Amino acid sequence: MPDFLAAPNFRGFWPLLTSVEDVDEIIAALARGQRLLVFPEGTFSREAGLKPFRMGAFVAAVRAGVPVLVGGLRGTRSILRDRSWMPRRGPLACETGALLPPDGDDWAAAVRLRDASRRAMLPLCGEHDLEA
pTM here? Predict the structure, then answer.
């Protein structure tokens, strides 16, 4: 099982740890053997589309030398509405995709890992790319 998942599982879920400021804490968790779930967009809103990814998880992955397992959720936007904690009924799907190892340990490697993760996630989540 890879150390990073970019889709849901609530064990080890730290919803606020996605920015570069959180890298040391993420690396420490990985060193303790924790498997982490990361939502790289760092937010959820009514607007459809895959939002820009924050860099923290990708910087941590390359520094720790751990792969990222990309996953995508479909149906969350219709079930979990923005500004509401009450889920609606509807279909929800989770699909895993590529296992992406880092190809270095510097900022450029983190950017490549982020970009590769985004390309792998787009077909899994079924949303359009807001960065295109």
Answer: 0.80
